[in-house]
């Protein structure tokens, strides 16, 4: 014996999101593929170094110390050439060769000590500031995510796997924009400028010959950055999709195992990582050739090779920053963490006045069509109806997970939109059909959220 639970066409039953919907999606594996241009569609713009430094402003003292060490370290390299020139010159005067030679040899030791100290300071302080920036951005991003309304999480653009990827991967990618890699670039620029000035001071004819190749190096680096920017945009989506597939498989591991689809998910995960892997191998091969040629041309320009490794990391950080900063700028329709709104001690009276509602992701489907009822304090009210008729929706509106399309929801005669969401929810106990437990004890789960 049995009973008919739902009746309707395939599309109607899916739109109701009832039992039929659950059964269909239990056998359907969501395609985690996103369009390569999805970042552009989301309005994500590549950030720049100054915006990243703006977010690192609370740690400016640490970064200033690191940058100062970069400037000093950059001046040391050209100074080596001056000291070396003095050593060569001292050989022309045999009378003072011994004393002069000892002095300039000591200067080499002094320069080595200064260089070692500045290298330590720039690496430590820039790295320290970058780690603090990572921690701050993770905290701000997570707080921003928690403050979003439920409509935000209904969107496929904000799937659990994508959000986890933002926190776990994109935020740390920002670190490479201001850590020791940036200090290497600054030190190289200072060293190059000081070196060119010294070269023109001691011999402008030869200096012109050397400076002539700099535009070629600059053009090559600019071309490389342009190519890398496109690759990192695509790789960012591939990593995001692989994280989404992994999250989907882990969340529904029982279904995956029941349908013996472990290999399907494993293959999809590997497929998303295959393109970034091949790009990384190709890039490492090209970089190897580039570094080999660069060192073969002149050993003295070795710092330029170290600095060039910064630009691929910077492009990665720029795109990650664009994604993270775009998320931080998104304002929720219902701010869950706001301090605004009245903080009333509620007795439990609930009134719905001609409430109309449709979910943000399905605005064309009206779930509640003018619902009105009143529940007094201490009164038990049962909402009865088939799956998808709006029973859970009513509870979501009382919790103010969403705002109504029309009508009013009143708690103790107060429009719920005038009340503070956090304070209001702290007075409501909800036992959902499928409660989600956190990774802690039963006791901790029961008191979770209580202050």
Automatic annotation (TrEMBL):
The chain crosses the membrane at residues 63-83, 103-130, 182-202, 208-227. Gene3D superfamilies: ABC transporter type 1, transmembrane domain, P-loop containing nucleotide triphosphate hydrolases. One of its GO terms (cellular component) is membrane. Residues 64-307 form the ABC transmembrane type-1 domain. It is a multi-pass membrane protein. The keyword Magnesium does not apply. It is found in: Membrane. Keywords: Membrane, Transmembrane, Transmembrane helix. The keyword DNA-binding does not apply. GO terms for molecular function: ABC-type transporter activity; ATP binding; ATP hydrolysis activity. Pfam families: ABC_membrane, ABC_tran. PANTHER family: ATP-BINDING CASSETTE SUB-FAMILY B (PTHR24221), MULTIDRUG RESISTANCE PROTEIN PGP-1 (PTHR24221:SF634). This is ABC transporter transmembrane region. The lineage of its organism: Eukaryota, Metazoa, Ecdysozoa, Nematoda, Chromadorea.
């Amino acid at each position: 014996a049995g009973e008919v639970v739902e009746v309707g066409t395939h599309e109607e039953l899916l739109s109701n999101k009832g039992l039929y919907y659950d059964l269909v999606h239990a056998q359907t594996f969501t395609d985690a593929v996103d369009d390569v241009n999805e970042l552009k569609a989301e309005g994500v713009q590549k950030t720049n170094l100054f915006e990243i430094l703006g977010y690192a402003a609370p740690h400016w003292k640490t970064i200033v110390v690191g940058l100062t060490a970069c400037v000093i370290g950059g001046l040391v390299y050209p100074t080596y050439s001056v000291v070396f020139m003095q050593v060569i010159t001292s050989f022309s005067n045999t009378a003072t060769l011994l004393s002069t030679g000892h002095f300039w040899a000591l200067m080499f030791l002094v320069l080595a000590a200064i260089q070692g100290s500045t290298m330590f300071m720039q690496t430590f302080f820039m790295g320290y500031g970058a780690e603090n920036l990572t921690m701050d951005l993770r905290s701000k991003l997570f707080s921003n995510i928690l403050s979003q309304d439920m409509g935000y999480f209904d969107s496929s653009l904000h799937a659990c796997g994508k959000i986890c990827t933002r926190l776990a991967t994109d935020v740390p990618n920002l670190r490479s924009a201001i850590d020791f890699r940036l200090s290497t670039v600054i030190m190289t620029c200072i060293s190059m400028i000081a070196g060119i000035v010294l070269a023109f001071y001691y011999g402008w004819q030869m200096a012109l010959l050397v400076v002539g190749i700099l535009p070629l190096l600059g053009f090559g680096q600019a071309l490389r950055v342009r190519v890398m920017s496109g690759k990192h945009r695509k790789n960012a989506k591939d990593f995001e999709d692989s994280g989404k597939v992994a999250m989907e498989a882990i969340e529904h591991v029982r279904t995956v195992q029941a349908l013996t689809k472990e290999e399907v998910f494993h293959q999809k995960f590997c497929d998303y990582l295959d393109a970034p892997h091949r790009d990384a191998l190709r890039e490492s091969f090209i970089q190897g050739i580039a570094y080999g040629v660069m060192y073969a041309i002149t050993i003295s320009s070795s710092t330029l090779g170290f600095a060039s490794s910064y630009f691929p990391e910077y492009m990665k950080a720029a795109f990650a920053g664009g994604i993270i900063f775009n998320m931080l700028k998104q304002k929720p329709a219902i701010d869950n963490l706001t301090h605004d709104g009245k903080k009333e001690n509620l007795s439990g009276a609930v009134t719905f006045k001609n409430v109309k509602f449709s979910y943000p992701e399905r605005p064309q489907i009206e779930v509640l069509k003018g619902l009105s009822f009143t529940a007094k304090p201490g009164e038990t009210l049962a909402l009865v109806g088939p799956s998808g008729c709006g029973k859970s929706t009513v509870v979501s509106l009382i919790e103010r997970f969403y705002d109504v399309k029309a009508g009013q929801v009143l708690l103790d005669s107060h429009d719920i939109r005038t009340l503070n969401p956090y304070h209001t929810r702290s007075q409501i106990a909800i036992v959902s059909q499928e409660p989600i437990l956190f990774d802690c004890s039963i006791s901790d789960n029961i008191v979770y959220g209580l202050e």
